[in-house]
Amino acid sequence: MVQWISPFRRGESRAALPFQNDVNRLFEAFFPDAAAGAFESSLDVVETKDAWLVRLELPGVDPKDVAITLTQNELVIRGESKRAEETADAKSFHRERRFGAFERTLTLPTEVAGDRVSASSRHGVLEIVLPKRPEAQPRTIAVDAAK
């Protein structure tokens, strides 16, 4: 029985045929985006009474390489994760980190107060606070008793 190693699989395998690791490296050299996959980041959206909170994991991404656009209730986050430079005296032994451009688009169920949106980055997590417009915030309506 012969074990086949997918060219999309990352890393080296001792169980592979002697030439399979070479084929994997060759495939990745010609199709780096297909082999590594697109850069993806985990995203959380939390609703509070007053705002929407969006948290996006962007480890190693410089905040200067991130652009945030808000149009009515649509939020677009674009950026790029850049590959670390290699020097002539060092070469990669194993790579799993993904690099490249990314874009996430979210449609929020309510419009937000665009003039009060804020964004910050800490420990590789981008947090965007999108305050709700006053008319979109929940309100309590009193019920009058019938006379």
Question: Could you characterize the architecture of this molecule?
Answer:
The chain has 147 residues and is mainly beta. It folds into 2 domains: 1-36, no CATH class; 38-83 and 96-136, Immunoglobulin-like (Sandwich), CATH 2.60.40. It contains 2 helices and 7 strands; from the N terminus they run ααβββββββ. The chain has a 4-stranded antiparallel β-sheet, with no helix packed on it. A 3-stranded antiparallel β-sheet has the order 3-4-5, with no helix packed on it. A hairpin with a 2-residue loop joins strand 6 (118-122) and strand 7. It is elongated.
| CATH T-level fold name of the largest domain | Immunoglobulin-like
- Per CATH, the architecture of the largest domain is Sandwich
Number of strands: 7
Order of helices and strands: HHEEEEEEE
**The top level CATH class name of the largest domain:** Mainly Beta
- Number of helices, counting only DSSP H or I runs of 4 residues or more: 2
Average pLDDT score: 78
Radius of gyration: 23 Å
Helicity level? 10-25%
Task: Estimate what percentage of residues fall within beta strands.
Answer: 25-35%
Q: Let me know the largest β-sheet.
A: 4 strands, antiparallel
- The backbone outline, from C-alpha atoms, is elongated
Span of the ends, CA to CA = 86 Å
Task: Give the neighbour order of strands across the main sheet.
Answer: 1-2-7-6
How does the helix and strand content classify structurally?
mainly beta
Q: Could you say how many structural domains there are in total?
A: 2
Uncertain regions spanning at least 5 consecutive residues: 1-14
